[in-house]
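Throughout our pipeline, every protein is held as a single compact record rather than as scattered files. The remainder of this section carries one protein's record, kept here as part of the documentation.

===
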Amino acid sequence: MITHGKPPTIGPALDRLEKVASEAGVELLLPDEEVEKHGVGEPEPDLTGADIAVVLGGDGTMLRALARFLGTEIPVVGVNFGRVGFLASIQPNELESGLARVFSGDYRIVQLSTLEVDADGAHAAAVNDVVVLSSIRGRMVELAWALGGEDLGVQPCDGMISATPSGSTAYNLSNGGPVLVRGLDAMAVTFIAPHSLHARPMVVPRGLDLEIRNRTPDVSASVLVDGHALAEVTTGAPITIRLGEQSSLLATLPEATFFRRYRETFAS
């Protein structure tokens, strides 16, 4: 069980989850931080034996759980207690009925592509996106970029976004990038406020690494992975982004398809 960072946000949902799990004969495993946060249960140091991770929270909490269980066989299902909740397939008023179905095995697993990034000696995996942007608010950076070793020039801009299909509906979408349907093994590359009439988003398949170099002499570039700072890169140092070897596993109710969630979230 993984919950939102602020316990009051989920209200009595934890008690409701415990009741559903008890009725289904399901044992709840609580990571150390959840025991400390809520003051309930006993810590479970070894979560590798879990069958599924249940998230009570929004997309940020879902991303944290998907990243935590990356490389394992543990899928993540979400009950939305956030603002958008695009990755969650169960609404708060459906907690009991939805989780009862999940605990009975009535769910499907979607493999989500991830990204790997190397920047200034740091390495990380991203479930949603890798963002390279000016470290000084209000200052542009000039970013040289290449795909598959082929130079594509230098673009003055506020930054660049590399997004997975699951991340394409987040920061990438708000900057005019393309929506990639879950299941595509590709990443979207989108500029943030490019100083150009010709800079366009691009969809890149597996096997073509994206290399970015900061060409701005007096401004460093910040590298963010799923919204968290990874590195500050000065002029000339390469930032390499590629599709990752590991997939994160999203569990959803069968009827909560990508297009249904897209329609409910963005088309209303």
In short: The first helix runs from residue 13 to 24. The CA atoms of residues 168 and 174 lie 9 Å apart.
